[in-house]
Amino acid sequence: MDGVMDGFDETPGPSCLPQRVPLPAGAPRGVPTSEQLAHTQRLGEIGWSQWDLTTGETCWSDHMYKIFGRDAAQGPIRLHDLPTLAEPADRQALDGLVSRVVRGAVPGQAEFRIRGDDGVRSLRAVLEPAASGVHGVIQDVTARREAERAVAESQRQLLEVRERAEEERHVTLALRDAILPQPGASISLPYARISVRYVPAEKSASLGGDWYEAAPLPDGRMFLAIGDVSGHGLPAIAEMAQLRHALVGLTMTTASPDLLLAWLNALVLNRLDDTTATVVCGYFDPPTRLFTWAQAGHLAPILVRHGTAEQLTPPHGVVLGAISGQPYGVAEIRLEPGDLLLMFTDGLIERRSRDISEGLALTLKAAGAIARHGDCLDAGLDGLIEEIGGPNPEDDTCLLAVSVLEDSRPPIPR
């Protein structure tokens, strides 16, 4: 405060303009001019005042008038009248500051608001006792407080968005868990062992419509399917539920996989607007070990035989919801004891950081090494996911594996 006052003529005047003080001999050069001090006050939105309590005289700098929106012709405000300029809610705090400085001879500061033609502004007053009165500095901190309020509001809105996203994630996970079979569960059958892995995306907003199905049919066959609905979040989960339930219901007709997909495509085109989905599905017949399958724009399954993994050649099939009237092809492959059939969604091999062909190559290599886990298919699938890069941060990963046992014949009913 004393430093702020140095170089000013304490003789009261109409505007108390700062005066240049002659430098003593040998004093360092560079003392700021009155113009420089005035410029500093404008940049910092700072004004200063001197109140002489003995004579009752008051001196304001030019910028004090601007801060208070007061005409210089009206003259400055006396120290004891200063609280009257504040908003009613802030007058007591400012009056207390003035009393403490005057009576207790101790410096202090307070923040208060004033109302002018341009609205309410926030000011900060720093008062300090002087030899014959009080020195004061007033700073307009309106811009700073508005910035702080804007930051606080942004933080509040961000917190609300995060809370809504977390709530939606909980709902999405609960809905998915209610729709799909327990992820990670295994099914042991006389002729095969089936294991499923569902790994949700690491990012909450990326939870999607990946799904799978492995269900025995009344005629003894096993229906296997895996698919992916476009989009993320609750809409994708809801559409996934409709497609999965519709397909499971259609299997009761015992229709071929290509006809199932044609019906499912008609459902998407007529009931699910602006939706696309991919599916691969088929029947595994235990007595013949024949796997009959079709696909709708989905990645073909991988067959692991004698430690070598290769992707099956897919029959013709367009994405569900793309176009009507296009026939779906059918493919067949006779599995052998010891074979491993892997059906998966694109989240397994796709990453933003690598090409899809690279992801497929890594998956084929990792699939060929599953046999080293022995009969523990679950451990083999976990190892495969880790070897190709772990959970996908951008998309769900769904993996359905069928391990054909040595004795693939179903038990004979008694």
From TrEMBL:
Name of the protein in its database record: PPM-type phosphatase domain-containing protein
Organism of provenance: Planotetraspora silvatica
Keywords assigned: Hydrolase
GO molecular function: phosphatase activity
Stretches assigned to coiled coil: none
Taxonomic path: Bacteria, Bacillati, Actinomycetota, Actinomycetes, Streptosporangiales
Domain of life: Bacteria
Ranges for domain PPM-type phosphatase: 189-404
Entry-linked Pfam families: SpoIIE
InterPro entries: Bact_Sigma-Reg, PAS-like_dom_sf, PPM-type-like_dom_sf, PPM-type_phosphatase-like_dom
UniProt entry tagged with the keyword Isomerase: no
